[in-house]
Design brief:
This protein has 82 residues and is of the alpha+beta class. The chain has two helices and two strands. Helix 2 links the parallel strand 1 and strand 2. The model has no long low-confidence stretch (mean pLDDT 90).
Length: 82
């Protein structure tokens, strides 16, 4: 008798990552017309994980010389910032 293999939510999540990233790369190419143009100022708002991704995006975008990019938690959005 073979013991049953228990699959955790984490194992499933990890196993789907390669396909998820491939899909994300494909989707990114289909939405280039709505993404910010080089030189545009961008504010990215997030909370929790999305704030971490927003900060990483802002750092990478500015580092690539594509324009001023800020990332804030929703509670600290600087709506009146010039």
């Amino acid at each position: 008798m073979t013991p049953a293999v228990q699959t955790t939510h984490l194992a499933v999540e990890i196993a789907t990552q390669p396909d998820n990233w491939a899909e994300a790369a494909h989707l990114a190419t289909t939405y280039t017309d709505v993404l910010p143009e080089p030189g545009e100022r961008v504010a990215v708002i997030g909370c929790g994980t999305s704030l971490s991704i927003a900060r990483a995006y802002a750092t990478l975008r500015e580092g690539a010389g594509l324009g001023v990019t800020d990332a804030w938690p929703a509670s600290a959005a600087r709506l009146g910032r010039p």
